[in-house]
Amino acid sequence: MIRLLHIEWIKLWHNRWSKLLLFGYLFLLTSIALIAAIRFDIGPVKFHLADQGIFNFPYIWHFNTFIAAWMKLFLAIIIVSMTANEYSYKTIKQNLIDGLSHADFLKTKVLMVLALALASTLLIALMSGILGGVFSDYTTPSLVFQDISFLAAYYLKLVAFFSFCLFAGVLVKRSAFALGFIVIWQIFEGILTGLLYWKAFKNDSAIVSAETAEQITSFFPLVSMYSLIKQPFTRLNGIQTVAKQVGETFENAYQTTAMEYLIAVFWTALFIWGTHQLLKRRDL
Amino acid sequence: MTQTDPPILLSVHQLCKRYGKRQAVHPLTFDIKKGYVYGLLGPNGSGKSTTLGMVLQVVNPTSGNFSWFQGQCTPNEALKKIGAIIERPNFYPYLSAYKNLEIVCLIKGVPLSAIDHKLELVGLLGRKHDSFEQYSLGMKQRLAIASALLNDPEVLILDEPTNGLDPEGIHQIRGIIKKVAALGTTIVLASHLLDEVEKVCDRVLVLQEGHMIFEGAVADLLHEQPVVYLESPQDKALASWIENHPGITHVTPQGLGYLVQLAQEVATDQINKELSENGIFLSVLQKQKTSLEDRFLAMTHKTNTHD
Predict the structure, then answer these.
(1) Do A89 and B86 touch (CB under 8 A)?
(2) Which helix (H) or strand (E) holds B22?
(3) Domain at B8-222, CATH from 3.40.50.300, 3.30.43.10, 3.40.50.720, 3.40.50.620
(4) Model confidence over A104-144: pLDDT tens digits?
(5) Nearest-CA residue of chain B relative to A283?
């Protein structure tokens, strides 16, 4: 396993663009901490974002993983291009001729996905721990570790999305087109989701109710990955207060359900399986 | 008379490949034996690369099978004992020669110390930290050979190793191949450059449109029918003698004389003797060396019309 990871590491680390993207990612991820510095002092209005409770335990786990998940695009580009390049350079053919089996080739890529996701998760865990330690109003251990499961959801979210990227890279074989494929897929899911809800809200005797629409879309690959970490904003005290004043309550359940984990795991497995099938069946 | 046969390294049985409607390779059966240098000949699109792709497990055969090293190891272990380059050098352009070979070492399970040694063999040691994309085509091709030699392979497979190279580059590659062959490495060299095959190979397999049309020693192919050039001041007498001789299968006038193809059993000195007995004296009697090219063209042409 170390050997396979080492092979992938040489390919990745010595690529100027991959390295640039990695550092860019690292920089953006750590810059979440800079949010703490946001403060407005406009006359009587004093606003310090860090005081609004976004860095409170256990909320911080939710908030940070949600924000950080957007930046996975950087790593996704690396994964797509590192995979598609194997085809454009024809190095996949040479790797296989040199004696790497299809399964081992797949393993090098999957290990890269797991390692990048793990590194990102550990970093976000460390940062959240530090930011929380500094800014949180509550530091009782039971509260600190209460929502730590968001880290697991974050890890799965990255692994699932990167597996999708891996599949796209192998399927399309050209990095630019593979990224295009991912975007088109996203749009496709968006249109489908929109259609379902439109049907649901069109009239009362709808074929699909809003609940059914939500249930159906939750099975879409990208929706399933997205819903692993739900938006954290309506959980903020300030927003809750405002909502109560206007007579609105949020009934969002913020926790990730077992079903949601399961669907995402299913897609991950399917994408990796599909990648293996493509590798095995295709003539090079 | 029968010596102990050299061990079979690769045995191919009824291997064929179909791409949609096109049958790229018709069922092929052949063995690659230890210690020989094989030439795999054929025009472009004759199925050479597809055949090599199948035995190297990057092309899935439609049917048939093959086994490396008499099936004593798994297909992937077998590939680790082989060195192969296919069509053009495939490396990571942004990596240095050394890093590229490091990946190959990791795949094949070869110690990194092999890298410098092989780079020296192909004359690239001084440029080992340059990135692959900065290399000239000749250097890329030599790096590919170094890569294929990293594991001291039992079989070296080279597909068009001199494709696109200048004469200097071709000469260098040929030198390296000869050096490797001298070490007793079994080599399979696919090429459409016949003179290259003639210079380095012991045995040839000739493919045309996916069929194997010849398999045997290069010498057999070349000496199948000796050709002799005859010229005499007594031109008419010579011409009529040639025409009536049963041992001459084919005549072509050339220059002042005739190019005649002899049946296998007819020796040159015998011709000279017969002619002088008939009162015809030759000014030129020259045994022609048939080139592989002539033979190859004759052979592929024959089967073409046959189709």
Answers:
(1) no
(2) strand B22-33
(3) 3.40.50.300
(4) 999 999 999 999 999 999 999 999 998 888 888 887 888 88
(5) B59
Nearest-CA distance from B249 to chain A in Å? 47
The CA distance from A163 to the nearest CA of chain B, in Å, is 23
DSSP, collapsed to helix, strand or coil, labels residue A27 as helix
Residue-number span of the structural domain to which A52 is assigned: 2-281
Residues of chain B with pLDDT under 70: 1-3, 223-225, 264-265, 290, 301-307
Distance CA A152, CA A158 (A): 10
User: What's the rounded Cα separation, in Å, for the pair B275 and B283?
Assistant: 12
Report the alpha-carbon distance of residue B62 to residue B19 in Å, rounded: 9
pLDDT tens for each residue of A203-260? 655 566 777 888 888 899 999 999 899 888 877 766 667 677 776 666 567 888 899 9
Type of residue at B291: S
In chain A, how many domains are there?
A: 1
- How many CB pairs lie under 8 A apart between chains A and B? 77
Nearest neighbour of A97 by CB, restricted to B84, B91, B93: B84
Please give, rounded to a whole number of angstroms, the shortest distance from the CA of B70 to a CA of chain A.
Answer: 18
Q: What is the pLDDT of residues A82-112, one digit of tens each?
A: 999 999 999 999 999 999 999 999 999 999 9
Question: What CATH architecture applies to the domain B226-289?
Answer: 2-Layer Sandwich (3.30)
Q: Report domain extents, chain B.
A: 8-222, 226-289
Radius of gyration for chain B, computed over Cα atoms and rounded to the nearest angstrom: 24
